[in-house]
Amino acid sequence: MKVLSVASEAVPLAKTGGLADVVGALPAALKPLGVAMRVLLPGYPAVIGAARKAKKLRQYAELFGGPASIVGFEAAGLDLLVLDAPHLYDRPGGPYGPAGGGDWPDNWRRYAALGNAAADIAAGALGVWRPDVLHAHDWQAAMAPAYLRYGPAEGRVPSVMTVHNLAFQGQFAASIFPELGLPAEAMALDGVEYYGGVGFLKAGLQSASAITTVSPTYAQEIRTPAFGMGLDGLLNLRAADVFGVTNGIDVEVWNPAADTALASTFTPATLRKRETNRRAVEERFGISETDGPLACVISRLTWQKGMDLLSAEFDRLIGAGLRLAILGSGDTALQGALLAAAARHRGRAGVVIGYDEGLSHLMQGGCDAILVPSRFEPCGLTQLYGLRYGCVPVVARTGGLADTVIDANEAALSLGVATGIVFAPDSGEALVDAARRTAILFADRKAWTAMQKQGMRCDVSWERSAAKYANLYNALVTKGT
Ligand code: ADP
Ligand code: GLC
């Protein structure tokens, strides 16, 4: 089984969020199941810079405004295909916009080109290698199934469209349509047209053979008006083709027994060694008080993640007995509000603004709990890292958070199956109440340690979910297009 995975990010080459972790981890997880996955990425400077012994596999005299080529090479354990198109991708800053924030104005062209190249590869343009299935991730790759659908029938392989976050849809003005190179009939309700413009994610959802999202609960939620972001109608029409597959994590990269970012590695049998890491976190965040659980937040600072609730309830969370270490970047107003809140509680709370992979590992390995107060969360990865590292997840009951953490209610505690604390989303009151429960449970050392160990026993690897993707690919190939 050969699969072309198409995405705008993959660790370690380009990352703004969990999408990159998933795209980067899937190929290795699928390999033992007989799936050979190649990943098509845009040729950002960091991606091109990783090229060693690159082979030019296809040349375009002109692709969306300039010459381009598809090159193949291996890097960071990934079998890569890269769309090298300097006019689209060779620029400083992040994948989607300049360093200061905002989006590149030509993002529609940059990701239409990616989808177009992916469909070409699926149709056999490389000659030497052609996939049996095309797997597109999020709106940036979502034009791939659409280009396949409107391309020549003999080139059509089945496709999977995975939604990592329905909030980002790639919605553009109708005026771009003539430049997409699609037949006129594609500008229709059952094509790429969306609210009078062109919707990339909408086009992918409409065109793909199957749709997946990254947890079963989110797969249900996105079919309701409250979470559907305007696409719930379409997702309901396609309900028979919508599946939830919970993300796993790379258990080699995230392994507390061998993590070089930790001050001290540990196992469930040597949990006490976490104290060395905790002290390192306290030092890094200027936290001198030692009573109460040290809770961390590792997050994009946005409304989705409930970071406004965190900042609004900061004083009460501290009052409930928590100490707080926060690592994040994003919204500048939230950054300021959190820094100011931490300054009010010097010695008990600290904030580091920025993106720091190593520090995030240390926090998981040293903090007592990780707080994830999201309003919606397709899957969420930081609570999975928390489970693996004995950093007890305290999470909102939504999406993948609801699917991966077992609340420490009376029944779960008495059976010994609790792995965290789960509270109602979108409510400051519920968040503060969860903080109180955390502090009370933490004071019961035996119960807390049992919960840490139970979490560390959870299978958060890709094993089960990779099998679900492999089964889906097989079913689609058997069914044909
Ligand atoms: P999302 O993709 O919506 O941001 P996820 O929980 O799926 O949420 O993934 C977030 C990923 O980004 C995780 O790997 C997390 O550890 C990482 N991350 C988020 N913020 C930071 C930060 N400031 N520093 C380091 N890692 C971060
Ligand atoms: C998105 C979601 C997050 C999910 C990640 C990987 O960024 O916001 O919940 O874990 O994709 O699928």
CATH level-four homologous superfamily name of the largest domain: Glycogen Phosphorylase B
Low-confidence stretches: none
The level of helicity is 25-40%
Sheet-strand content, in percent, reads: 15-25%
Number of helices: 21
CATH topology name of the largest domain, in short, is: Rossmann fold
Largest sheet: 9 strands, mixed
Lateral arrangement of strands in the main beta sheet? 3-4-5-2-1-6-7-11-12
**Overall residue-averaged pLDDT value:** 97
Beginning-to-end CA distance, first to last residue: 16 Å
Just name the CATH architecture of the largest domain: 3-Layer(aba) Sandwich
Q: How many separate domains make up the residues?
A: 2
Structural class: alpha/beta
> Which geometry do the CA atoms define?
elongated
How many strands in all? 18
The CATH class assignment of the largest domain is Alpha Beta
Bound molecules: adenosine-5'-diphosphate, alpha-D-glucopyranose
Gyration radius, in Å? 23 Å
List the helices and strands and how they pair.
Layout: E1 2-6, H1 18-30, E2 36-42, H2 45-49, E3 55-60, E4 68-75, E5 78-84, H3 86-89, H4 107-122, E6 133-137, H5 138-141, H6 143-150, E7 159-163, E8 171-172, E9 193-194, E10 197-199, H7 200-207, E11 210-213, H8 216-221, H9 225-228, H10 232-237, E12 242-244, H11 274-285, E13 294-301, H12 307-312, H13 314-319, E14 323-330, H14 332-344, E15 349-353, H15 357-366, E16 369-372, H16 382-389, E17 392-396, H17 399-404, H18 410-415, E18 421-423, H19 428-443, H20 445-457, H21 463-479
Parallel strand pairs: 1-2, 1-6, 2-5, 6-7, 7-11, 11-12, 13-14, 13-16, 14-15, 16-17, 17-18
Antiparallel strand pairs: 3-4, 4-5, 8-10, 9-10
Helix pairs in contact: 4-6, 6-7, 11-15, 16-20
